Automatic annotation (TrEMBL):
One example GO MF annotation: hydrolase activity
Entry-linked Pfam families: Pect-lyase_RHGA_epim
Protein's name according to its UniProt entry: Glycosyl hydrolase family 28-related protein
UniProt keyword annotations, A-Z: Hydrolase
Organism in which the protein naturally occurs: Yoonia algicola
Domain Rhamnogalacturonase A/B/Epimerase-like pectate lyase: residue ranges: 188-242
InterPro entries: Pectin_lyas_fold, Pectin_lyase_fold/virulence, RHGA/B-epi-like_pectate_lyase
Length: 762
């Protein structure tokens, strides 16, 4: 700020050559004595040091020179009064800047200092310069603090012995506010420390120097393009007018103003700002989270999170990104990359493809499809010299050589470039896929990746993808996943909410709408509570898909308090290279309790729980379905449970520890339970009663054991005499082994209630 420039104010007094009547020998106020009449001062037109000057004879103890013009005193404006003096003859006085402070109405402002520091003249002919700064603010460097003054009459004082003769050059008054501006508004300009802002010069050192000098003040980055070709850390607050340009390998860390808004102001590019802010997040310990400030970040291409800081291939410290939205812009960068390649698979090396043709063209993170390939199997790594591809899960029936298809979907946030990535949280973020981009791809390894309170809206192919074991302990809480296939019939859908390959996944209180599958879970220790997933359509007698797909036969998992709407729980072993039962656990370790199952407008063969063995010899061993509600609307269904025998059936003779009880059935033709509590009435006397369980046991299971038999009324013989014999039961009778024989010591008739089980409990 300079009032002479901005407001056109002239602060300099008129020169002595214009007349000495303008110069007072006292205080400078109107009517005061002037040097034009005092006789103690004369104008000297020619002097070897001064173009024109006032020559004074000091006859008073303090000789004064004051300009009679009123110099304005403006708040925020700093004036420097400067005088040049030399002794000519006689006694040598001291000289100082002095002035008279005026308030409105010509009243002198009392209680303020009216003169600056004095300098002693020590020789004749030597020019001595004195100066003082006047302002309304009491700041370091201000000599005359005139708070409340409106104007001043400025000049000099000569003190000391009398009788001396001095000459005084024209007095100057300069606006020096610019010297105080940085301190006034607590700013340090990077240009003062060598920054060029030309987009070519490396300004890193200047930024660091300015920050070191700031000492609590704000670092100012003025207009310009500032190239930072090195790491820069700013400890103080910072304000941007100009733009930062910095390569990904260098870090720009803001310790005070750490949030997305500040980085956006710095880089003036949404994507670069996010990458740089994320880079700082994982390289600075004082902040655990990046606040996106509620901003929408428009992405022109997938964000390779590892490439944001190429120096790191692993990161395992808790960090959070929160409070914002990601949205893809239209463009070819989101197109799926699809590659077909011939490769060989062997069950003895079940997570690897060998002899892969054109292996370099296969992208990491690609979905693998082909004959004998289960759902949601991805490429975790590629070894070009060995011509091998590592897979996230084994293939169930792909022995030999065939052509596989590799489809690499494009994700808004892609962490697959890391070797291992753990303890990361995405919080309160909307991933607005617009049907052109998928949501999040995890790293191939890591643990406790947490997505909470997020919306994954309209992803093109996948909401969240785990291409390896980066989903160990993954948590998805209170999120909403909405597909881009709301109007697409179930049979034609391709998108999937998420998948997990590793163990201990926690899925809680989420809402999911109209994907092909809500999720495909290939690990154990899954906990799913309080979720609502619905995947129906408006088709009459429409097809339904598995909302939850379990691919481990013994998943050690619990489903509690969920709402399964127009889909079913599908339980397979499709991620097993040897799917026939051998030494592994068979179908068990699953609890489904306290859930709501509902469907509408489906064919009567629809089921809510489907087991699909991909090889023979499997059986149920440790499975509980307790306290659920099963309901069909706009039509009835036959049963709630089913075994899909496309590849193999279960071995019902080996069923163990299976509980299916306490459930409620609405519009279900054949309710089931295990144990099943049945009644048999024998109208004619017989030694062996054939009691048919029909469809009462789940999965059309065999009547293996009878737990109890209780006569319901009298048991009588042909003479109508009561018989008190204790009968004995035989299970697995009849052609389908679903009948029970109840044997008596003599032919009898009557009615019994009995409990039959399809499992062995001992």
């Amino acid at each position: 700020m300079n009032k002479a420039i901005t407001d056109g104010i002239v602060f300099d007094p008129l020169p002595f050559s214009t007349g000495l009547a303008l110069w007072s020998s006292t205080d400078g106020t109107p009517g005061s004595d002037s040097y034009a009449a005092s006789g103690s001062g004369v104008f000297v037109a020619a002097d070897q040091d001064f173009a024109g000057c006032l020559e004074l004879l000091k006859i008073d103890p303090t000789a004064r020179v004051r300009y009679k013009g009123e110099t304005p005193i403006i708040p925020g404006c700093y004036l420097q009064i400067t005088a040049r003096v030399k002794a000519v003859a006689g006694a040598l006085p001291a000289v100082r800047i002095a002035g008279w402070p005026g308030e409105g109405g010509g009243v002198e402002l009392a209680g303020v200092t009216t003169f600056g520091a004095a300098k002693q003249l020590t020789s004749y002919g030597q020019v001595v310069e004195v100066s003082a700064i006047v302002a309304t603010a009491d700041r370091s460097g201000v000599d005359l603090v005139w708070t409340g003054a409106e104007y001043g009459h400025f000049g000099i004082d000569l003190t000391g012995p009398t009788g001396g003769v001095v000459r005084l050059d024209d007095i100057t008054i300069t606006d020096v506010t610019s010297a105080f501006t940085r301190d006034l508004i607590s700013m340090v300009d990077v240009r003062d420390y060598g920054a060029k802002g030309d987009g070519v010069t490396d300004d890193s050192a200047a930024f660091n120097a300015a920050d070191a000098a700031a000492n609590g003040r704000t670092v100012m980055v003025p207009a310009g393009d500032f190239l930072l070709a090195n790491n820069v850390t700013i400890e103080n607050r910072i304000l941007f007018e100009g733009r930062i340009d910095q390569a990904p390998e260098y870090r720009f860390i803001l310790q005070q103003d750490y949030n997305y808004d500040t980085y956006f102001k710095a880089f003036q590019d949404e994507e670069i700002a996010f990458k740089k802010a994320y880079q700082a997040l994982i390289n600075f310990a004082d902040h655990d989270s990046l606040d996106l400030c509620g901003r929408r970040i428009l992405l022109t291409e997938p964000v390779d999170m590892q490439a944001a800081d190429p120096s790191r291939t692993r990161f395992e410290t808790r960090r959070v990104i929160r409070n914002g939205q990601f949205q893809p812009a239209d463009g070819a960068a989101w197109d799926t990359v699809e590659v077909t390649s011939q490769a060989t698979y062997s069950a003895s090396d079940d997570n690897r493809l060998t002899n892969v043709v054109n292996v370099a063209s296969i992208p990491v993170g690609a979905l693998v499809q082909g004959n004998g390939v289960g759902r949601e199997i991805y490429v975790t790594s590629v070894n070009e010299p060995a011509q091998t591809v590592e897979l996230s899960r084994p293939l169930f029936d792909a022995e030999g050589t065939q052509v596989f298809t590799f489809s690499r979907f494009q994700y808004m946030l892609d962490f697959s470039g890391y070797e291992k990535f753990s303890q990361f949280i995405l919080d309160d973020i909307e991933f607005q896929g617009r049907g052109i981009a998928s949501g999040i791809m995890l790293a191939p390894d890591g643990f406790t990746f947490h997505v909470r309170d997020c919306f994954i809206n309209r992803p093109k192919d996948r909401g969240i993808t785990s291409p390896g074991r980066g989903c160990q302990g993954m948590m998805i809480d209170r999120c909403q996943l909405i597909s881009d296939e709301q109007s697409v019939p179930v049979a034609n859908r391709v998108s999937i909410g998420f998948n997990a390959n590793a163990n201990d996944v926690k899925i809680r209180d989420n809402r999911t709408s109209k994907f092909k599958h809500f999720c495909v879970l290939a690990g154990s220790g899954n906990l799913m509570t309080g979720n609502h997933w619905f995947h129906g359509d408006d088709e009459v007698n429409g097809v339904r898909m598995g909302g939850i797909v379990l691919t481990l036969p013994n998943p050690k998992s619990i489903f509690t308090g969920n709402y399964c709407d127009n889909n079913f729980i599908e339980w397979t072993n499709e991620h097993d290279a040897s799917p026939a039962f051998g030494t592994q656990f068979s179908f068990g370790g699953l609890t489904i309790t306290g859930n709501m199952f509902t469907t509408n407008d489906v064919a009567d063969w629809f089921n809510f729980i489907v087991i699909k063995p991909y090889g023979p010899g499997h059986f149920i061993n440790g499975f509980a379905v307790i306290g659920n509600v099963f309901r069909s609307l706009n039509g009835r269904i036959d049963r709630v449970e089913h075994v899909d025998t496309t590849f193999a059936d279960l071995d019902y003779s080996r069923t163990r520890s299976f509980v299916f009880e306490g459930n409620t059935f609405h519009n279900v033709n054949e309710p089931v339970s295990n144990p099943a509590f049945l009644t048999h009435r024998q109208a004619t006397e017989a030694t062996t009663w054939v009691m048919e369980t029909n469809t009462a046991l789940p999965f059309d299971g065999r009547a293996l054991t009878v737990e109890s038999v209780m006569p319901d009324g009298a048991i009588t013989n042909a003479g109508n005499t009561r018989v008190h014999d204790l009968p004995w039961a035989e299970g697995e009778q009849g052609i389908d082994l679903r009948d029970v024989h109840l044997n008596w010591s003599q032919p009898v008739k009557g009615q019994v209630r009995y409990a039959v089980r399809m499992d062995q409990t001992g």
